[in-house]
């Protein structure tokens, strides 16, 4: 199963998924410690390490942590103990981990540390928001590398470790769905040993971020970034290609591949600068690129997905250089959703005044009048959640109850055929927001509220809001869906999962949080389930039903 | 329209209509889309095709999506291979071949199809639970209107009848594409790739599906 990833032949070419190449890069770099919480499009990284670790093929340490903040903290501990450390998550995970990450950039790493953050432009596999993790560049001052394809995924992870080692700072490798879930040829290098023996040496000056030391650390951080910038100026992961006119394109990540293809398709000879470093930007290299464009009239197109970060930076830079230089980006519409070969064709054709292309005639006009529906995802036939839907629908008039939803397979409770969802936010929030609503509508006694939360989500972020509801005395009915796995993202284990040694019982946690009204139910017993819902909805304190039935896909 | 295979015109290795006149086929690549619904084994097919490309010394790039769509939603896998491939996504109207594991899904890929795109379609309808489905006749009508070359193959039925297992329909279809020159990959390369990719337990069955497709064409 991991034949390609574990192939130890230097120079051999294999086809790898971007995420597989990230794993390979970490193995080649000799990673010792890996922690993660799943989330598409980064999940395969953890899945692969998990399988390799459980089958004895990975000699380092691996864990699925309870959430991303905890994964980050575990990684920080490993790094402080001298280990080569990889932490992986999707963009939303970064938000959760941010509180630990910011001071980590101040203290810097000891063991080299790479953090993988996967964005999902177009929200192919994400609810919540179309988050662009590049904002971290200005918030956290952390170096960020942006690969375009699996080969670069592997190389950039290794470069990340090398940078981290040289400058003692964690490094982010940022992917997007079309990079993480792209397969292409990767040339392998040799594997390294992953065995480890960490040791923690006391060093309060480095690890304690109390003021006034914390501000000195910030100063040291800025100095590091200056040095890394000099490194970036010379690095060959920022590549420039000469053109024949005063027009040039600056791009990075997947957009680079689209740009190359569009230019070839239109037979345009424009200058092209591909940035592997997103932060710190190799400003002199960009200047040199702009200057190298032939002629006096220079015009630069910035090709990047989502919000215009590069565009703003290059705009300021160009204005400093020479007011004649024109910097253009994409239209506002294209800040929503990912770029595509067709959008990039349009952008570049506009930019270069290219008129050669005929309108591409696709066949979609033939399906315009068809009255068929979009094939929306749905719960698997036989999913235990169907039993939850049927019981709730029998117990209450769904129009009269507020339903809190969350991400997980059970987000499909919001689908048109089920209609049991009135808000959907981040992990754990069905409980937290439910409490707020219940407090706000206190007095209007007929309004009932049911919050659904999955078991992995409960451990991830559901416990503090449960405690909050108990202690601040509101009365939502919380239905915890214990299907014994993290189903949505590919059936990873969690602290209460069936395949975890010493698994934690959710009912023990709930009781420990002070919940008095608690029932554990097998949803096959519909009658008991329906009656419990009815009864618990009358309670003036928090009530919890734990619905125990395994996902049929495990 | 025959219920079996609509068109038996022997296909030559593809030539795509120019959408942007000059250097439209800049990198000499072949663009393939595998469409279907979640859980139809697209990733195995992708792995087989990737290995077959390695055997033939082709460059290869593909793009897939994971997550919610796996729960029975529409799934599209983009594959491009050839001497040099720049990007993993098939552009609008740019597919040379569309392999559809379900009939209605073939129509969802029309944005990627031009007049010269070929279709190889598994003759199977999976109802759309979230709304209105199309009938076989409605799908065929649209395909006929397009005037494109369409191969409609009851791959699941054939595999079930001959091998007692319909799960290998996808392997049957990509082998069919190769034997009928719908895809510029030699059958030997596909077979080699199957042997490399498919787990031992299922290898014999998959090789049988491969052989079966050669007989039918
Ligand atoms: C902070 C954050 N990390 C990761 C994700 C990705 N994600 C979406 S749902 C989910 C887990 C769902 O598991 P569970 O709560 O057990 O529900 P199930 O899918 O099993 O129904 C994850 C990890 C996310 N949305 N936000
Ligand atoms: S994967 Fe499991 S939890 Fe998700 S819909 Fe299917 S059966 Fe239900």
Helices and strands, with pairings:
The complex is a heterodimer of chains A (about 550) and B (about 220).
Chain A: H1 3-6, E1 13-17, H2 18-29, E2 33-36, H3 43-54, E3 61-64, H4 68-80, E4 85-90, H5 91-107, E5 113-119, H6 136-140, E6 144-145, H7 150-167, E7 171-176, H8 177-180, E8 182-187, H9 204-207, H10 213-234, E9 239-241, E10 247-251, H11 253-266, E11 271-274, E12 277-279, H12 283-292, E13 299-303, H13 309-321, E14 326-328, H14 341-352, H15 385-395, E15 401-405, E16 423-424, H16 429-440, E17 448-454, H17 455-471, E18 477-482, H18 506-512, E19 517-521, H19 526-536, E20 543-548
Chain B: E1 29-37, H1 42-55, E2 59-63, E3 74-82, E4 97-100, H2 103-108, E5 118-122, H3 136-146, E6 150-153, H4 155-163, H5 169-179, H6 187-197, H7 200-216
Parallel strand pairs in B: 1-4, 4-5, 5-6
Antiparallel strand pairs in B: 1-3, 2-3
Helix pairs in contact in B: 1-6, 4-5, 5-6, 5-7, 6-7
Bound molecules: thiamine diphosphate (TPP) and iron/sulfur cluster (SF4).
Largest sheet of chain B: 6 strands, mixed
Q: Gyration radius of chain B, to the nearest Å?
A: 16 Å
Number of strands of chain A: 20
Largest beta sheet: strand ordering of chain A: 3-2-4-5-7-6-12
Name the overall outline of chain A.
globular
- Overall number of structural domains of chain A: 3
CATH superfamily of the largest domain in chain A: Thiamin diphosphate (ThDP)-binding fold, Pyr/PP domains
Would you tell me the overall average pLDDT of chain A? 96
Which pair of chains forms the biggest interface, and how many residues does each contribute? Answer: A-B, 61 and 65 residues
Q: Return the CATH architecture of chain B.
A: 3-Layer(aba) Sandwich
Query: Would you list the SSEs of chain B in sequence order as H and E?
Result: EHEEEHEHEHHHH
| CATH class term of the largest domain in chain A | Alpha Beta
CATH topology (fold) name of chain B:
Pyruvate-ferredoxin Oxidoreductase, domain 3
CATH architecture of the largest domain in chain A: 3-Layer(aba) Sandwich
Query: What share of the residues of chain B does DSSP label as strand, in percent?
Result: 15-25%
CATH class of chain B, named Alpha Beta
């Amino acid at each position: 199963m991991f034949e390609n990833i574990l192939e130890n032949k230097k120079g051999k070419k294999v086809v790898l998924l971007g995420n597989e190449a990230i794993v390979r890069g970490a193995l080649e770099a000799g990673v010792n410690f890996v922690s993660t919480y799943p989330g598409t499009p980064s999940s395969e990284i953890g899945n692969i390490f998990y399988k390799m670790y459980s089958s004895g093929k990975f000699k380092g340490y691996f864990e699925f942590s309870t959430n991303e903040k905890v994964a980050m903290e575990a990684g920080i501990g490993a790094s402080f103990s001298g280990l080569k450390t990889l932490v992986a998550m999707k963009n939303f995970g970064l938000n959760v981990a941010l509180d630990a990450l910011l001071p980590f950039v101040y203290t810097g790493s000891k063991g080299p540390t790479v953090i993988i953050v996967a964005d999902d432009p177009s929200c192919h596999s994400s609810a919540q928001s179309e988050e662009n993790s590049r904002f971290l560049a200005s918030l956290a001052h952390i170096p960020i590398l942006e690969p375009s394809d699996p080969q670069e995924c592997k190389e950039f992870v290794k470069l990340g470790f090398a940078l981290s080692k040289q400058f003692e700072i964690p490094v982010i490798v940022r992917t997007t769905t079309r990079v993480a879930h792209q397969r292409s040829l990767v040339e392998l290098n040799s594997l390294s040993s992953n065995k480890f023996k960490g040791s923690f040496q006391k060093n309060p000056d480095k690890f304690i971020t109390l003021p006034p030391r914390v501000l000195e650390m910030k100063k040291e951080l800025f100095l590091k970034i200056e040095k890394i910038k000099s490194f970036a100026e010379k690095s060959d992961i920022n590549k420039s290609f000469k053109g024949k006119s005063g027009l040039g394109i600056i791009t990075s990540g997947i957009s680079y591949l689209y740009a190359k293809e569009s230019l070839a398709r239109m037979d345009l000879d424009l200058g092209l600068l591909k940035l592997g470093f997103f932060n710190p930007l190799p400003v002199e290299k960009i200047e040199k690129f702009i200057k190298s464009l032939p002629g006096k009239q220079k015009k630069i197109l910035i090709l990047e997905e989502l919000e215009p970060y590069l565009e703003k930076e290059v705009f300021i830079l160009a204005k400093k250089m020479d007011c004649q230089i024109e910097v253009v980006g994409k239209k506002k519409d294209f800040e929503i959703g990912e770029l595509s070969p067709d959008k990039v064709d349009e952008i570049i054709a506009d930019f270069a005044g290219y008129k050669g292309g005929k309108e591409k005639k696709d066949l979609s006009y033939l399906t315009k009048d068809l009255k068929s529906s979009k094939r929306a995802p749905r719960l698997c036939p036989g999913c235990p959640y169907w039993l939850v839907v049927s019981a709730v629908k029998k117990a209450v008039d769904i129009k009269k109850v507020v339903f809190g939803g969350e991400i997980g397979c059970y987000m499909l409770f919001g689908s048109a055929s089920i209609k049991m969802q009135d808000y959907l936010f981040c992990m754990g929030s069905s409980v937290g927001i439910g409490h707020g609503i219940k407090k706000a509508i206190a007095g209007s006694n007929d309004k009932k509220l049911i919050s659904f939360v999955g078991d992995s989500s409960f451990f991830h972020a559901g416990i503090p809001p449960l405690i909050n509801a108990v202690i601040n005395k509101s009365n939502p009915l919380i239905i915890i869906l214990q299907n014994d796995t993290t189903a949505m993202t590919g059936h990873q284990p969690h602290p209460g999962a069936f395949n975890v040694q010493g698994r934690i019982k959710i009912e023990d946690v709930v009781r420990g949080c002070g919940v008095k009204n608690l029932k554990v139910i097998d949803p096959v017993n519909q009658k008991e389930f329906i009656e419990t819902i009815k009864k618990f909805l009358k309670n003036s304190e928090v009530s919890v039903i734990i619905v125990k039935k395994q996902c049929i896909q495990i | 329209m025959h219920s079996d295979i609509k068109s038996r015109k022997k296909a030559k290795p593809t030539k795509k209509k120019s959408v942007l006149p000059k250097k439209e086929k800049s990198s000499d690549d072949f663009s393939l889309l595998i469409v279907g619904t979640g859980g139809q084994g697209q990733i195995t097919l992708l792995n087989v095709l990737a290995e077959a490309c390695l055997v033939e010394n082709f460059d290869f790039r593909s793009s897939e999506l994971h997550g919610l769509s796996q729960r029975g939603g529409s799934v599209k896998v983009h594959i491009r291979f050839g001497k040099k491939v720049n990007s993993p996504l098939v552009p609008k109207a740019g597919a040379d071949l569309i392999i559809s594991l379900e009939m209605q899904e073939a129509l969802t890929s029309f944005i990627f199809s031009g007049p010269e795109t070929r279709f190889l379609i598994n003759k199977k309808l999976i109802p759309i639970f979230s709304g209105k489905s199309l009938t076989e006749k409605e799908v065929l009508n649209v395909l006929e209107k397009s005037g494109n070359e369409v191969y409609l193959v009851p791959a699941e039925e054939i595999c079930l009848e001959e091998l007692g297992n319909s799960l290998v329909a996808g392997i049957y279809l990509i082998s069919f594409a190769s034997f009928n020159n719908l895809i510029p990959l030699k059958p030997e390369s596909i077979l080699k790739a199957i042997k490399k990719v498919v787990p031992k337990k299922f290898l014999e069955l998959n090789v049988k599906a491969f052989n079966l497709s050669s007989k039918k064409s």
